[in-house]
Structure formats: structure tokens, C-alpha cells
Specification:
Elements (H helix, E strand, L loop, with lengths): L3 E9 L8 H14 L2 E4 L4 E5 L1 H17 L5 E9 L6 H5 L4
Antiparallel strand pairs: 1-3, 1-4, 2-3
Helix pairs in contact: 1-2
Length: 96
């Protein structure tokens, strides 16, 4: 059951001070490959799934940025947890 929404804004310190956009694109690609439902926003990406799975994915995103040569990563993360279930659609349906 999907019991969590996790939003992440990932801000890697790039190796040579170049744009973070290619790194953010890589992070979004990894989210897509993980097979979780997600929605890209202008400042963060929100994922929907099981809390433990999503938190492991957050860790993987940070680790991947380091593998790509970033010396450090700031990740701003928001979590909505509801053990009875939650979905993005339920929260934003009146706005779509």
C-alpha cells in the first residue's frame, strides 16, 4: 500500500561549479527507473509509495550525486506519512 508522499529538492555541489540541471535530470531519471509514481514540480519532485522504499530512494539519489563527482549534496525532504494510505491524486484532485 502507498502510505507516503516524499518530496525532494536535491542541490548537489557540482565538481566544477557547473549547472546542477544535468544532475537533477539524473536524479529524476533514477526516480523514474525506481518505478514509483512521481510528479516533477518547479522546485521539487514528489514521489508516492511505501515510506521505507522512498527513504531508501532518497539515500540512493544522494549517493549517486557523489558517484557523479559532487563533493556534497543538500537534499530538502518533506514527508507525509499515513499508515492507512495516501496519494498525490487525493490531495490535488481539486486543482487538476
Amino acid at each position: 500500500m502507498q502510505n507516503a508522499l516524499v518530496s525532494i529538492q536535491i542541490l548537489p555541489q557540482t565538481p566544477n561549479g557547473e549547472s546542477v540541471i544535468p544532475y537533477v535530470d539524473k536524479a529524476i531519471s533514477l526516480i523514474d527507473q525506481a518505478g514509483v509514481s512521481y510528479r516533477v514540480g518547479p522546485l521539487e519532485t514528489t514521489m508516492e509509495g511505501e515510506l521505507t522504499q522512498l527513504l531508501q530512494l532518497v539515500a540512493k539519489l544522494n549517493e549517486e550525486m557523489v558517484k557523479l563527482g559532487c563533493s556534497q549534496v543538500i537534499s530538502q525532504v518533506k514527508v507525509l506519512y499515513n499508515p492507512e494510505g495516501i496519494s498525490m491524486g487525493a490531495l490535488i484532485k481539486k486543482y487538476d
